[in-house]
Every structure is written in C-alpha cells, then in structure tokens.
Amino acid sequence: MHLKDTTTGDIMKALEKQLHETGGGASGLALNLVALTTEDEREEVEKAASFAAQEHPYRLILAIPRDVDAPEPRIDAEVTVGERLGSAEAIILRLDGPAAAHLTAIVLPMLAPDVPVVTWWLLDPVRYGLEHELRSFADRRITYSARAADPVRSLYRRAESYVAGDTDICWTRISLWRSLIASAFDGVTQSVEKITIKADDGDPSAQLMAAWLHTRLGVAPDVVDTEVERNSEHLPAIASVAFTMDGGETMEVERKSDGTTVLRQAGLPKRRQTLQGRTLGQLLAEELRHIDPDTAYRHVLDTFQEQYAAEHAA
C-alpha cells in the first residue's frame, strides 16, 4: 500500500489494515529493525532484511532521506506485510526536508511494543546530519563504517561516541577469521613475539582485526598495506595474518583469491577453510542473534581508539 504526503497516524492505520487482512500481528515479532539507507541501496537492504527475517521475524522501518534541503516536510510511505519482504512487517519511509531531520519523532510511534529495537545505519549519518537520530531508543545499534566516505575515521567516531549496544558490520565480517585464528591457538604454549597483517589499511575490518589480536595476545600487529582482491565488498580486505612465536616457530592464515583460507602451522598439515564473503543478509542475521551488548567489540574498539589517536597525534 502506497501513501503519498502522509502522516504517522495514516501509516499506522494502513499497517493495521494490512495485518487484519493477512491475519498477522505484532505478538509474533522478535524485534523492531529500523534501517537508515539511501534509495540506491534500498533494493540491497530489502533483500538483506528479507533473508534475516526468516530467522528473526520483525517489524522493519526503512527510512530513506530524500531531499533533506526541501523547505517543507513530506513523508511518502509504503506499507507491506509479507510479499517481497518475506515474513517481515515493513514500513518504507521516504523523507523530505524537516521530516528527515526529525526521524526519531516519526519512527517512535511506529515501533511494535514490548520487543527490542535495533537500529541499522547503511549510510554515513554524518553526511546527512543524522548522527544522533535513532540512537536514543535503541537496544542495539549497527553501523557499517566501510560505507562511510572515510571508513577508518568513521570507525574512530564510533569509538568516541560508543554506547553499550553499539556494533559494526565490519566487526561481523571478521567473525569467521577470529574463530579460525582462536582455534589455531588451541594447544599453543609459546608466546607470540610478532604479528604481521597484510591488508588494506583503509578497511575498518583490518583495523578491528589488528586491535582484536592486540587485546588477545598483547602484541600490536604490524599492518602492511596491501592491495587485496575481493569478490564481495562484504569480505574483509585481509590477505593474511602471520604469527612468529618467541621460539622462532611461525603460523600463518592466508586467504586465496577463490575465498579458500589456508592455515599453515609448524608441525601440522595445512588446514583449509572457506571464508568467502557472506551476503549482507547473512551478516545482519548474525548480528541480530545478539541483542545484549558485545563486550568483546567494546574492548577491541577501545584498543583501536588508543592506536588511532596515538598515530594521528604523532
């Protein structure tokens, strides 16, 4: 159902009508997902949301700032239950002028009651003057710093303004890498003397990997800026992570161009694992499994913030 130049009240009436006709209702929802994106990325976000909704039924409120400089506020909306978005209840908002600047006030009455709220920024909120919108009422806040004009600087801003419940898709992108590396250290008794990461040093995932290893092993990795071939933007731009132990032994995790990752460890046969880039929907679904604050991410972000501040003060 499409609504032109509408109001919050009329949007909710349209949703109630759709729910009545389909026999649905908010009682079966696991959460609210409020996503902020652009028109160019809407189709990708809808596809991701549809995939994630299979695992986490939710009410999706997809907000698209349109003409933010328009003098008069305007809201155009689309309300759908099921259809192309699968099991999600969806409200798609296109916002002009002051309507975009007051996004929080518009969204709040649309939330399903008594379930958690997750907000998800797929655009750089600073660019649209929306950095503080959608933050105050959310239990969990997901950003994607790789989509910002300056990704690493954006990650630093996230560190400066961190609130419990914040996370980043760039952190989710390295969860399989972290799992593989952690398992490789099972049974390792020697201390790590040196860590070298070959990666695009402008990729926030690479910076988070370096900070995670520093927090876990007490050694600050050397990040060697490397051009990394990727078949998906959702794959971290990391080519390899190499460890040298204090006894001289080495261990390396290297990603091949086909997505296969090889673990070479002294005295053991090579181990292969596929760490191909997951879809945005798969990454979102993983994040939505955890509504509680991610304390590991918080510690890693603190370490990254200290490193970034030290480097840029020099």
Account of the protein in words:
It is a single chain. This protein is an alpha/beta fold and 314 residues long. The chain has ten helices and 14 strands. Strands 1-4-5-3-2-6-7-8 form an eight-stranded mixed beta sheet, sandwiched between helices. β7, α5 and β8 form a beta-alpha-beta unit. α2 packs across α9, α5 packs across α10 and α8 crosses α10.
List keywords for this structure.
314 residues; alpha/beta; 8-stranded mixed beta sheet; 6-stranded mixed beta sheet; 10 helices; 14 strands; 25% strand
Brief summary:
With 314 residues, the chain is of the alpha/beta class.
Oligomer: single chain
Name the average pLDDT: 88
> In angstroms, what is the radius of gyration?
22 Å
Strand content: 25-35%
How many helices? The count is 10
What order do the SSEs take from the amino end to the carboxyl end, as H and E? EHEHEEEHHEEHEHHEHEEEEEHH
Gap between N and C termini, in Å?
56 Å
Low-confidence stretches: none
Strands ordered across the widest β-sheet: 1-4-5-3-2-6-7-8
Tally of DSSP β-strands: 14
Shape: elongated
Class inferred from helices and paired strands: alpha/beta
Q: Mind describing the biggest β-sheet?
A: 8 strands, mixed
Helix content: 25-40%
